[in-house]
Amino acid sequence: MQVIETAIPEVKVLVPKQFKDHRGFFSEVYSRKALADAGIRAEFVQDNHSLSVEKGVLRGLHYQVDPMAQDKLIRVVRGAILDVAVDVRRGSPTFGQHVTALLSADNWRQVFVPVGFAHGFVTLEPNTEVLYKVSAFYSPQHERGVRWDDPALGIDWGVRGAEAILSDRDRRHPALADAQDLF
User: Fold this and answer.
1) Residues 6+ apart with CB under 8 A from 87
2) Looking at the predicted structure, is the pLDDT value of residue 161 above 90?
3) Residues 6 or more apart from 166 whose CB is under 8 A from it?
4) Please, which residues have CB within 8 angstroms of residue 62's CB and are 6 or more apart in sequence?
5) 11: pLDDT strictly greater than 90
6) Using one digit for the tens of pLDDT, what is the confidence trace for 45-66?
7) pLDDT value at position 180?
8) What is the DSSP string of the chain?
9) Known catalytic residues?
10) Which of 93, 118, 147, 171 has CA atoms 20 to 30 A from the CA of 60?
11) What is the mean pLDDT of residues 106-128?
């Protein structure tokens, strides 16, 4: 597995090997040993799968607080997304900064987003399917979020206001400066 460092060292882009032949390919997309070799020691307990029918569906920015905080390992099996991780760890030298990664079924990349980061993505193609592993079970009472278009974050999602297809919940998240229960 290839490991690509990002501007925030805790967030990593991973590229599993593909073994191709005339039949198609085989790929080991998750290996606890390969992650440990990359310095990732997460224990995943749940797999999530989302389908976004339209281009421009924006999901995020989400995180869960302790004791249900989650590491995430995100990959795309159909379509493409711009994936975003925002550091929400108060006192971190990269607090409020973000990294982005293009994930697609074609480029076979994954992103590891550790505890202490808000996570979101926008679909770049219709009928995009995203699979991700999490290290803690979903817990509505521990769920939090940050506004996707907070000017202080300066994230270029590639979509503007009315173009973004959001849930009502994601429209109501506070700006980072007003967010409660950060890390």
Assistant:
1) 8, 94, 95, 96, 97, 98, 116, 117
2) no
3) 58, 148
4) 118, 119, 120, 143, 144, 145
5) yes
6) 999 999 999 999 999 999 999 9
7) 83
8) -EEEE-SSTTSEEEE--EEEETTEEEE----HHHHHHTT------EEEEEEE-STTBEEEEEEE-TTS---EEEEEEESEEEEEEEE--TT-TTTT-EEEEEEETTT--EEEE-TTEEEEEEESSSSEEEEEEESS---GGGEEE--TT-TTT----S--GGGSB--HHHHTPPPGGG-SS--
9) 62, 132
10) 93
11) 98
Q: What is the pLDDT of residues 67-86, one digit of tens each?
A: 999 999 999 999 999 999 99
Confidence check: pLDDT of 2 > 90: yes
C-alpha separations of 5 from 61, 76, 89, 179 in Å: 22, 19, 19, 28
